[in-house]
Design a protein that fits this description.
- By secondary structure, this protein is an all-alpha fold.
- It folds into 2 domains: 82 residues, no CATH class; 99 residues, no CATH class.
- It has 9 helices and no strands.
- α7 runs antiparallel to α8.
- The chain is globular.
- It starts with a helix and ends in a 7-residue tail after the last helix.
């Protein structure tokens, strides 16, 4: 399956094709996807409107390739866009732990520091870790777990002080909470 086809089947912006291709082929994130898993992902995308069918294909892909990031992304996006936020958070937390293991980081995100990895690069694994941390923070906030969400935003800000991943947007949401719209 080409990166363009996978990008389309996952509902991603086509401008990400090159980045996705590099990312999927990155050894630290599991390498190339098998034809069977690619087919499961394509079938899930085609059946998106049929929740049970689409989820069945995604879970089959997960059973076939439980370590592959494309499977996690597809499963995460499915749960997220179906507003099944608790399940999306479970997938994101698994990604956070797996990526921490791939990078030899502490598995507890609270213990990760900028000295553990070069988070300032565009290398796939550190960026994926930061994106996943941001996603977890957002989901905790959406689920009303504001303290955990805020702590994760603090960690994201520490690991990404240049704000390349937009953690400041979540920080702004936290700061505006409880204020009147007229303020």
């Amino acid at each position: 399956m080409s990166a363009a086809t996978l990008t389309e089947s996952l509902g991603l912006d086509s401008s990400l094709t090159g980045e996705l291709n590099d990312w999927l082929e990155s050894a630290c994130l599991g390498g190339a996807i098998t034809a069977e898993v690619a087919e499961d992902l394509q079938r899930a995308a085609a059946a998106y409107h049929l929740d049970g069918v689409a989820e069945g294909y995604l879970l089959q892909a997960y059973a076939r390739a439980p370590e592959h990031p494309a499977v996690h992304i597809a499963l995460y996006r499915f749960y997220f866009y179906k507003n099944r936020l608790s399940e999306a958070l479970e997938v994101a937390q698994r990604c956070l732990v797996k990526t921490a293991m791939d990078l030899n980081l502490p598995q507890d995100w609270q213990a990760v520091t900028p000295q553990h990895a070069d988070f300032s690069t565009y290398a796939a694994a550190p960026r994926f870790y930061l994106f996943t941390l941001k996603g977890c923070a957002y989901l905790h906030m959406r689920l009303g777990e504001m303290d955990t969400g805020a702590a994760m935003v603090d960690k994201l800000t520490m690991l990404d002080p240049a704000d390349r991943l937009g953690g400041s947007v979540l920080r702004g949401v936290l700061e505006r909470m409880g204020q009147d719209d007229d303020d």
